[in-house]
């Protein structure tokens, strides 16, 4: 029988290897090559007694599905869903090699340490030791490590939900984020549970002009100049705040004093409050959780230094609140473009509305119970993530899907949020221990 310290050591070693596999997803079909990590995880789980299957919808884009079958088909079933791909990292920006997986002073450094190889690792560690212990649940327990989450999940969860739904569908799913302790004003920790996520409407705005010789710029129809104005208008656009259930219950659950909670819950005051709030991480989260947002991110323009550009492609990342659809987004863009609308074509790369799961469920109650073992008196509070996760696909199968894990207090809220797709990403071994033990405790609580 292994100890929690031994399991944490196992998880640490596995995480280091996953980081070193460098399954970097740059959005192109040939990137990622997640087969390296799928093979590693399969080898790690072999001999434990779990059933395993791999899926490869494109060369190298491999996902692993492992299962401990339940004894009662009518009992609730649960999936622990991780991903193995990571976003690119520039080594010049990092204190340590982003793909070195170094263990330094109790911290594992590397791309994916927080997003989300830490949870993918601890889910696998928990699954292995549950199986080795002879754990036999009433409802199925699945562990899935998918490819391609960091792009649009074309070769990962989206593909699995469309092509292997019967193999992966469960009543409940837990995937990334959440579970980072936040201090309540009453001294009790709060543990956010991700119950929904904003919609993803990536689009390309093609700004049209007229070519000409750059030596005569007077009164030219320069598409790049117009695109610059479009960027300025996007940056200055201020959509109205919208307060949804997950946000209001999150703020109520934190127990903030009135001077904080009241402006956070007032759509007429929250914008100015976020502009002035000294805690930048909290301000950004609060604003994004209560507004549909737009961010210009990529621009392609021009063919030659001495040619006035007649075409500019501007990529915009739009994240919508619950209730928005493509028509609403298009109306917003036309309002932003104003008198330039006739010179701009709008093409959507992604049209995925916001998705949410109910808050008051048996899994919610189980997460609260199990969390007490590690954080006595902790309160679970709902949260809407402003990024995208694979829960948006599992919800289409009817699964109640949350984001959770369990983290120590070694990394604060501000640091935690900044490391997603940021520099110097790292996780402490104690957080790996907490998550591993939490997954095992949750399975024994919820599935028996």
Topology, pairings included?
Elements: H1 4-21, H2 35-45, E1 51-55, E2 63-68, E3 78-83, E4 103-104, E5 107-109, H3 117-132, E6 141-146, H4 157-163, H5 165-168, E7 172-175, E8 182-183, E9 189-197, E10 199-208, E11 212-213, H6 223-236, H7 245-254, H8 258-264, H9 270-276, H10 280-290, E12 293-301, E13 307-308, E14 311-320, H11 326-337, E15 344-348, E16 355-356, H12 362-374, E17 379-385, H13 391-394, E18 400-403, H14 413-419, E19 426-428, H15 429-446
Parallel strand pairs: 3-6, 3-7, 7-18, 9-17
Antiparallel strand pairs: 1-2, 2-6, 4-5, 5-19, 8-9, 9-16, 10-14, 10-15, 11-13, 12-14
Helix pairs in contact: 1-2, 1-3, 1-15, 3-15, 9-10, 12-15
Give your account of this protein's structure:
The chain has 448 residues and is α+β, with helices and mostly antiparallel strands. The protein has 2 domains: 274 residues, 3-Layer(aba) Sandwich (Aminopeptidase); 98 residues, Alpha-Beta Plaits (2-Layer Sandwich). 35% of the residues lie in helices and 22% in strands. Strand 8 and strand 9 form a beta hairpin. Helix 1 packs antiparallel against helix 2, helix 1 crosses helix 15 and helix 9 packs antiparallel against helix 10. The longest helix is centred in the N-terminal third of the chain and has 18 residues.
């Amino acid at each position: 029988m292994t100890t929690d310290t031994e399991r944490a050591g196992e998880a640490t070693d596995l995480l280091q290897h996953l980081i070193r596999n460098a399954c970097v997803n740059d959005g192109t079909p040939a990137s990622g090559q997640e087969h390296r990590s799928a093979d590693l995880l399969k080898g790690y789980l072999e001999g434990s007694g779990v059933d395993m299957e791999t899926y490869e919808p494109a060369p190298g884009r491999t996902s692993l599905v492992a299962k401990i079958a339940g004894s009662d088909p009518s009992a609730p079933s649960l999936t622990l869903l991780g991903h193995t791909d990571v976003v690119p990292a520039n080594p010049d920006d990092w204190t340590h090699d982003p793909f070195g997986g170094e263990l330094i002073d109790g911290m594992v450094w590397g791309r994916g340490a927080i997003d989300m190889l830490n949870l993918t690792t601890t889910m696998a560690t928990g699954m292995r030791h549950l199986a080795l212990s002879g754990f036999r649940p009433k409802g199925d327990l699945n562990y899935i490590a998918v490819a391609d989450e960091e792009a649009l999940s074309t070769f990962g969860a989206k593909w699995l939900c469309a092509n292997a739904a019967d193999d992966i569908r469960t009543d409940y799913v837990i995937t990334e984020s959440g579970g980072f302790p936040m201090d309540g004003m009453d001294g009790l920790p709060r543990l956010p549970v991700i119950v929904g996520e904003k919609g993803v409407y990536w689009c390309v705005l093609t700004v049209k002009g007229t070519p000409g010789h750059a030596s005569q710029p007077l009164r030219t129809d320069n598409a790049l100049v117009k695109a610059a104005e479009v960027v300025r208008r996007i940056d200055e656009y201020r959509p109205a705040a919208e307060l949804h259930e997950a946000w209001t219950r999150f703020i109520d659950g934190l127990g903030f004093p009135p001077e904080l909670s009241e402006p956070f819950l007032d759509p007429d005051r929250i914008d100015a409050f976020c502009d002035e709030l000294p805690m930048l991480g909290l301000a950004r989260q609060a604003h994004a959780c209560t507004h549909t947002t737009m961010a210009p991110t990529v621009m392609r323009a021009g063919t030659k230094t001495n040619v006035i550009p007649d075409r500019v492609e501007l990529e915009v990342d739009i994240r919508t609140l619950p209730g928005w659809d493509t028509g609403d987004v298009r109306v917003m863009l036309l309002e932003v473009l104003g008198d330039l609308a006739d010179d701009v074509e709008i093409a959507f790369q992604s049209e995925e509305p916001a998705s949410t799961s109910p808050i008051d469920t048996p899994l919610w109650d189980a997460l609260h119970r199990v969390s007490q073992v590690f954080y006595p008196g902790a309160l679970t509070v709902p949260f809407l993530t402003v990024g995208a996760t694979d829960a948006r696909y599992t919800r289409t199968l009817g699964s109640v899907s949350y984001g959770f894990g369990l983290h120590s207090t070694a990394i604060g809220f501000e640091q935690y949020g900044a490391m997603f797709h940021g520099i110097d990403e790292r996780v402490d071994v104690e957080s790996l221990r907490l998550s591993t033990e939490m997954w095992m405790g949750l399975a024994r609580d919820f599935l028996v």
